[in-house]
Design brief:
Layout lengths: L1 E3 L5 E3 L2 E5 L2 E5 L5 E3 L2 E2 L12 E4 L6 E4 L5 E3 L5 E5 L16 E5 L2 E4 L10 E6 L2 E8 L4 E4 L4 E8 L2 E7 L14 E7 L2 E10 L7 E4 L8 E2 L24 E4 L5 E4 L5 E6 L11 E6 L3 E5 L8 E6 L2 E2 L13 E6 L5 E3 L2 E5 L2 E5 L6 E3 L14 E3 L4 E4 L5 E3 L4 E4 L19 E4 L3 E4 L1 H4 L3 H20 L1
């Protein structure tokens, strides 16, 4: 097996070759051996760079990229894969932390790609993305569990590998149709969609939509900037780089890009984020983006005012009637829910379909007339989950609402009966992930949580 460059200079290399529908290992000393099946459970442990035949599918072949990750090579015609740290296979003694090229007929260590020292590279494996940092001192790619929003682009001639976009000088990059947004939370990276701002003195804005990189464009004529004049502009970009967001009511508000800010947007036609739905939109200094991944700690209840997320200690007289509560899934899809917000000794009722407002817990000991409301029995503040049961707000967790009608002035509506609610230090609201299950499942979850709490208390 030989590798020849454009000048027809050739050298003998080690790798795999496909012949007659079967893969063969080709050693540098000339030995050739047909790839065999691997029958043990942990197929790739200690075998980085090995190609094996699937014991359950005689027509499927896999390439081991690490001890835990492999890629099916049968349908690959041109791709590059970074291998992880660990023990290489006998054939590829130097395969760990390298770039392996897979074509329709050959598999070998890529001899031509030159990575930049300390730069991050994204690698696509099937539908997943992995992040690696290249270290020149060891000539190796090292796995990097980074978090954040990244603007990257394909690398000409190196399919499957992505490098950083130069936002300070976009003219040095490839065409915008080669750009891609990534959203990473540690080792979980997903493709993201949205708007990107360059870092030039007079910045340009780019549209990277959910319906394919072929539709990536610079914002200007098509797609045009929006004037943020109506609710139809929700999720569209203004000429000054602001995002038009319709929070409460129908009055659009413009928000600039800022690190760590979050918005909830009911996306409209022309938005890059998605075709439809209420989405959890993240902002950095140079992007507005949506992806189907949010941090574990961010799954659940979120408090917003005028479409922008706030903490409960930011509630004041100016926004207390403009609060909305959303329950957001790991996939970044949000739904408005009923509940309450807590700011010290102040409490705010937040119905799902009506205006919010400050409330004072009733000074009573029982819940007979206060189902779904807050009460103060002199020992603490409680939420009445029905006409007989109540929950101390000092005990965060998941609880079930009863099947009683809610009292006038409660945040909850009739459709919230028997749903699960989540209570945290600052928010109370319906949890749709658990509430979406059947009644029998809800009871099991509730009992399980109760048992865990009891065990924790004993210890």
């Amino acid at each position: 097996m030989y590798y020849c460059d454009g000048e027809k200079n050739c050298e003998r290399i080690t790798g795999y070759a496909l012949k007659g529908g079967k893969w063969f290992s080709m050693r540098i000393d000339g030995d050739v051996e047909q790839v065999s099946e691997i029958t043990e459970a942990q197929d790739c442990v200690g075998k980085i760079g090995k190609v094996y035949k699937d014991q359950d599918d005689s027509n499927a072949y896999h390439l081991c990229l690490s001890d835990t990750v492999s890629v099916k090579v049968d349908d690959v015609t041109d791709a590059n894969f970074i291998t992880g740290s660990g023990i290489s296979s006998e054939l590829f003694q130097n395969a760990a932390n390298k770039l392996i090229k897979v074509t329709a007929d050959f598999i070998y260590v890529n001899p031509t790609f030159s990575a930049e020292n300390s730069k991050l590279y994204f690698n696509k494996v099937a539908s997943d993305f992995y992040v690696y940092k290249y270290l020149e001192s060891s000539h190796a790619f090292v796995s990097d569990n980074t978090s954040g929003i990244f603007v990257y682009q394909t690398i000409d001639g190196v399919a499957g590998l992505y490098k950083e976009v130069n936002l300070a000088n976009p003219s040095l990059n490839g065409a915008v149709t080669t750009w891609i947004l990534f959203d990473c939370i540690e080792d979980d990276c997903k493709q993201a969609y949205g708007y990107v701002k360059s870092k030039e003195a007079s910045p340009k804005y780019y549209y990277l939509p959910y319906d394919g990189v072929a539709n990536n464009k610079e914002v200007g004529s098509t797609p045009a900037f929006s004037d943020c004049g109506s609710a139809d502009a929700n999720g569209l970009l203004m000429s000054d780089g602001s995002l038009c967001v319709v929070g409460d009511g129908s009055t659009p508000i413009k928000y600039t890009m800022g690190d760590g800010e979050v918005f909830v947007v009911d996306v409209k036609t022309g938005s890059p984020f998605a075709a439809s739905g209420i989405k959890y939109i993240k902002s950095t200094g140079n992007t507005f983006s949506f992806s189907e991944v949010i941090a574990k700690e961010d799954i659940g209840l979120h408090l917003f005012t005028s479409g922008k997320e706030i903490s409960s200690n930011k509630i004041d007289d100016n926004n207390k009637t403009k609060l909305t509560l959303y329950d957001c899934t790991k996939a970044g899809v949000c739904i408005a829910v009923a509940g309450y917000a807590i700011n010290g000794d102040k409490y705010y009722s937040i119905p799902a379909a009506a205006a919010s407002d400050e409330v004072t817990p009733a000074n009573v000991n029982v819940c007979s007339a206060d189902s779904g409301k807050l009460i103060d029995d002199g020992r603490g503040i409680y939420l009445c989950t029905g006409t007989t049961n109540k929950v101390n707000l000092a005990q965060p967790g998941f609880y079930a609402l009863d099947n009683n009608d809610f009292a006038s002035g409660s945040s909850f509506a009739s459709g919230d009966k028997q749903k699960m609610i989540q209570i945290s230090d600052t928010l109370i609201g319906v949890n749709n992930v658990i509430s979406g299950k059947g009644k029998k499942e809800k009871k099991i979850i509730f009992i399980f949580i109760f048992i865990i709490c009891k065990i924790t208390f004993l210890f």
